[in-house]
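Schema walkthrough. Field components (list of strings):
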Amino acid sequence: MAMEKRIFDSEEDLAVSLAKYIADLSAHFAKNRGLFTVVLSGGCLIECLRKLVEPPYVDSIDWSIWHIFWLDERVVPKTHVDSNYKLAYDGFLSKVPIPPDNVYAIDDTLSAEGAAEEYEARLKQLVSSKVIDISSKSGFPKFDLNLLGMGPDGHVASLFPAHPLLKENEKWVTFIKDSPKPPPERITLTFPVINSSDYIALVVPGAAQADAVGVALGGGSGQNGEALLPVQRVAAEGVLTWFLDKEAASKL
Ligand SMILES: O=C1O[C@H](COP(=O)(O)O)[C@@H](O)[C@H](O)[C@H]1O
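Field assembly_structure (string):
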């Protein structure tokens, strides 16, 4: 795995650089695949995408090739303030012409178990129709770009510290009913899927995440050499790029 760390003077500079990084990847995949599969997190990631919906990118990106997926979702209606879909729609998707059929939201009418099963089945269909690639290395779906955020406790997606879901290595999509961060019921992609991505951007602005960034990039480990934090299990099959601002990087 190739890993790169980018540290910016401000969150504004981070957002500018992130937009260029994503636009360049969109152009790369347009040329080489004619499709661009992008996984969105919730949280502050969406705010960090704000430069993409402004000129020059809003006009220059070929949005018709984009296919949007969710890294994780809360089991709430799409209109609920806690919905990652609503966050992404209000802050990003409503502002760019991605074809609505290419936006794969999680079914908000189902239970946590049902929604996870349904999303995994939908991903399988999209693998069959060749929208999503399969990793020849892992056998798991391989998204082109996975846009990850990280919580102050080092969680990514809905994969929390010391939770048994960290070790899920068969399912593509699973569910949690005891999330330590509300709301408790969520569905999430699993680590084998996250780590099969071609490109992962770990977008981490703000002082609240500094301790976790310090542990993760400082190589902190537990007694058996095990990763202390979920974020330390992130390892892109292709390239992992950290986008940090000065505050987030202050403990490095
Ligand atoms: O609950 C969640 O938290 C993480 C991190 O959120 P942030 O607000 O600290 O950026 C987010 O990436 C995930 O998608 C979300 O469901």
